[in-house]
Amino acid sequence: MKFPRTTLILILLALGLGGFVYFYEIRGATVRKEIKAQKQQIFSFEEDDVQSLTVKTKKFTVILEPNLKSSNPKWLIKSPISEPANYAIVSYLIDLLVKGKSDSTLSIPAKEVGEFALDQPQATINITLKNRQSHQLILGKSNFNGSLLYAQTDPATKPDGNINVLLVSTDFANAVNRELSEWKQPVDNSQKLPGFSTPLPTPRNGK
Question: Is the pLDDT of residue 136 over 70?
Fold first, then answer.
């Protein structure tokens, strides 16, 4: 049976559209679901569980602890200086640690860790909890388009000789790559300025 040319074109268009719908809507939805399922919580603790944070960058190491004697300031810098900490900066970091998720996880041979700059990381965050558990987050280099960071949590080599490498938000790098002055509580200069009063003009004696 021979179909008219117009009918044949319509059949081919229908088949093409059907293939597109299958691969994009059905097959694509499955792939997107698998990618979404790969996103997982990095850690499972709360801010109140943290006993101390140690942030080591290529410039210096800062140790932070909650202020147990007062809620103002809520956090203290214990090293390399002893100062009240900038709560907004510390809270930003803790929020990432508590709520942060990895976009995906790669399993690589341990000998390839240098390819992700995890052997000479830009920063290492050590977290000590009140229950005496500890965690570590190592931040390596950015991925190919700079949208995510390679990272490693609680480093350990698996029985097959591989290690897990996570892809995490670049917000982690923004949170820790700071000057030491940024970790300190801002000084409220308005409370230190002396009060000024405008002197009244001295009256002249009239003649």
Answer: yes
